[in-house]
Amino acid sequence: MAAEAYQLEDIPGVGPTTAEKLREAGYETVEKIAQSTASELYELAEIGEATARKMIKWCVSQTTDDTETDAGSSDAGADNVPMNAKRLEIEDIPGVGPAIAEKLRDGGFLTIEGIATATSSTLSEAAEIGESTAKKMIKWCREQADIGGFKTGTEVFEARLLIKKLRTLVPEVDELLGGGFETQAITELYGEFGSGKSQIVHQLAVNVQLPEELGGLNGSVIYVDTENTFRPERIEQMVKGLEIEDADPQEFLRNIHVARAQTSDHQMLLIENTHELAEELKKQGKPVKLIIVDSLTGLFRSEYAGRGTLAERQQKLNRHMHDIFKLCDEYNAIGLVTNQVMSNPAVFFGDPTKPIGGNIVGHTATFRIYLRKSKGGKRIFRLVDSPNLPDGEATFLVEEGGLRAC
Ligand SMILES: Nc1ncnc2c1ncn2[C@@H]1O[C@H](COP(=O)(O)OP(=O)(O)O)[C@@H](O)[C@H]1O
Ligand SMILES: [Mg+2]
Fold it and tell me: What share of the chain is helix, strand, coil (3-state, %, to 5)?
């Protein structure tokens, strides 16, 4: 709503000429810009891509009702999702001006993290800079991105003592997971359309609100919905399905903060901007314990289809996963992302058990679960490549009241 109060001319750096161009290109409102991608804006309104990105960022930050509780209440601290602390862009690297930034982007180096993991020879070639400059640049980016930042074994051990587990309440599945979904980690659910990814996500959005003695974490939920598949009715059914006296579905809905992402850039910004909401929830005594992105890859896949710019997509996904992980780490929360794989392996991506987003998602997610349908409504839940648990399978059913044992 607040976005409507703003005119295009209120956007920092937008004067009457740019505003005119924006309107001609169909961007009449701040809201429309918030939902655009930098490349669209750049092409349609003839402004630089970096400017376009800044503009989108500002507009998203003004679009305050992006994140709302699905019960439609506006008093749950979700109205305000201001900007996070400033994220470093490649222009912030010492010695990088617009010309080099442009070359870097053309060469597929879009982020600080991307440069931090580059080799000096590829970077020097891409940006047409000397190799020693490239080395300095990489060093600086590594320091900023905190890549290769070491913690002592004791610190890691102490952090791990705080890990909590969220139960699905399907005994066979919880046992396979060594007690449940772990905090301080991202779990990726992948499988075909209809395999049960969103059902698990809904169930966990309910269970996480339960007290610990009932398998929950007494926490709230941040839910980025990219495919419009969040269903409050399903939450209601699942709350009833718990058969807990006095459990009020409306209260469960109030603790789920849902935002619809329109584009992959928008999706990334929503996660970047959740810090304030997370702080607010912590103050209210219902800290965020579950961060959902359903689907993680859908928008990325459609936007980058056939563009031949896989490197760009992967760097963005990598950054996005990194942002989700930081939230999980900071709030001792669970990251839960979904990834749809195609049914016909011959036509699409080879091995159907290899999720889209490839290794980038696979390497950043701590746990990966492959879901598939089996006979008689049974669903198979397969744990793949866990760092500390044996691989294995469990089965479950999806019923009106939620996930159930077979
Ligand atoms: N109310 C319900 N009762 C029983 N089964 C349901 C209900 N809602 C959804 N399902 C089951 O869940 C399936 C959809 O699973 P979903 O998690 O949305 O798939 P995806 O993996 O594509 O996210 C449906 O095909 C149906 O079998
Ligand atoms: Mg789904």
Answer: 45, 15, 40
Q: 93-145 has which fold?
A: DNA polymerase; domain 1 (1.10.150)
CATH (residue range 153-404): 3.40.50.300
Span from the CA of 323 to the centroid of ligand 1 (angstroms): 29
Q: Give the tens place of pLDDT for each residue, 280-311.
A: 999 999 999 999 999 999 998 888 876 566 77
| Average pLDDT of the chain to the nearest whole number | 83
Torsion angle defined by CA atoms of residues 389, 393, 394 and 395, in that order, rounded to the nearest 10 degrees? 160
Q: Tell me if 241 CB under 6 Å of ligand 1.
A: no
pLDDT of residue 115: 87
CATH superfamily of 2-62: 5' to 3' exonuclease, C-terminal subdomain (1.10.150.20)
Any idea which residue has 């993680």 for tokens? 296
Q: How far is the CA of 236 from the centre of ligand 1 (A)?
A: 15
Structure pTM? 0.70
- pLDDT for res 294: 97
